[in-house]
Amino acid sequence: MSGQVTAQVSRSITTGNAQVFPLISKAEEEGYVHLRRGVLSKMLDIPLDVIMEICAHLQTQDMLHLSRLSKAFRALFTSRSMKPVWRAARLNVPGLPPCPEDLTELAYGNLLFDTSCNNCMARDCWCIYWVCRVRLCNKCSGALFKPGRRTVSTTGIA
Predict the structure, then answer these.
(1) Beta bridge partners of 12
(2) Residue 42 sits in the same domain as residue 109
(3) Are 25 and 52 members of one domain?
(4) pLDDT tens string for the chain (158 positions)?
(5) Burial code of 125-141, b = ≥16 C-beta within 10 A, e = fewer?
């Protein structure tokens, strides 16, 4: 009995007026926490046409987030069968210009909504070079683009 009391005390906080507040939730205490883990992996068991119908109501940024959840989701969201779903997701974003012909919907969404540099992966990069179809930070754009020239250096993105 004393072993249970010490375990309960070690997982609680005592305040100055001797009240005990547990550090764990009731669900954790009763062992229900394991039900939350891996819940999205069950989404892959849903039939493909149902997944496509659900995703057709999402926006491009949501589709990008889903495609980055795991390798299985990446494989699903980059497959050819999802091409019309990506198009529908782009159309769900109001005021978004059409996708350029030389980019896939996924690459177009990544260029628009991802904020990392395509060269060094630095975060919070907001400069998109539409002619090159690349997003670069100030450091990389200075290194890859030569001042006064119209070409990109051969060491970087061409």
Answers:
(1) 22
(2) yes
(3) no
(4) 444 443 344 444 444 555 444 445 555 556 555 555 566 677 778 888 898 899 999 999 999 999 988 888 899 999 998 999 999 999 999 999 999 999 999 999 999 999 999 999 999 888 898 888 999 998 888 888 776 655 555 444 44
(5) beeebeebebbbbeebb
Amino acid at 77: F
Q: What's the gap between Cα 75 and its chain centre? A: 14
* Domain encompassing residue 142: 121-158
* Residues 30 and 50 reside in one and the same domain: no
Same domain, 101 and 47: yes
* Overall domain count for the chain: 3
Q: Is 148 left (phi over 0), alpha (psi -120 to 50) or beta?
A: left
Question: Same domain, yes or no, for 62 and 86?
Answer: yes
d(CA 152, CA 158): 6
- Tell me the C-alpha distance between 5 and 15, whole Å: 18
Distance of CA 17 to the CA centre of its chain: 45
Q: What distance in Å separates the CA atoms of residue 80 and residue 68, rounded to the nearest whole number?
A: 17
Q: Please state whether the predicted TM-score (pTM) of the whole model is above 0.70.
A: no
